[in-house]
Please model this.
Amino acid sequence: MSVNYLNNKDLLEEIHKSKNTYCSYSKPEYHQYDIILASKDKINIRTIAEAKRNRAKRMGDELFAQRKEAGEKVKLAECEFDYKKVVKTDLVFRIMTYEHIPINKTRKKSQKTEADSHDRVNFPPFQHWKFDENDELICVGKSHWRGGVKSGKFSKDHGQITNTLARMYMKLCERYATRGNVRGYTYNDEMRAQAILQLTQVGLQFNEAKSNNPFAYFTAAVTNSFVRIINIEKRNQNIRDDILEMNDMAPSYTRTSNAEHAASLRRFEREEE
Model:
């Protein structure tokens, strides 16, 4: 898959695929969730109905895409599913929980959140649950897990991001590096490389339960990375200029021009007085 442009739909799909490489499911089809909830206690009549609507919409979108690829002239309204016909036992609930993540009391001295008392993981952990034929909830999937859902064990290093998501990271950083406010820096390549590294570290931390806009999340991470490198380089440049001035040598053009500008402002203020 070539990456010509970035949109939230494709980003969410690749994030989902990447996270699935760190997960284990009792059946492959259980990887697709219908709703995200904070706990199993949130599963009730209202959330079940919402999950049915989400599943019906996804099924309609998939059918529409399939018929379009087949060359049919079809409208999206013709592919809509009635959510009332969705069977309750087909629903998959994603529950955000640290229940299956090992406890680690020594990782942080000050444990302010639940995550601080467990092993560090590269994205918010979750479990997938569904109703069986007896109307009882059963666990059908776990994140950061290798092997069977019941017989497996915790693992956080066996997965990886997809090649497409990696190309998306690179494309986003390349485009940001061409912005007018950063493209003129001589260390533009270093800023871009640091931004790609930053995305590989925090990209999967995007939480679908809180937002469906990963593009904004990634852009903020890239912006912070670029600004951090700029601030570091400016600080190093100030140190170099101080050393040059201490040895009676000419500082950089930037400091010289800034000093001339400040002097002209002071002259203007004196003339105004």
About this structure: Residues 22-154 form one domain. The chain has a mean pLDDT of 90.
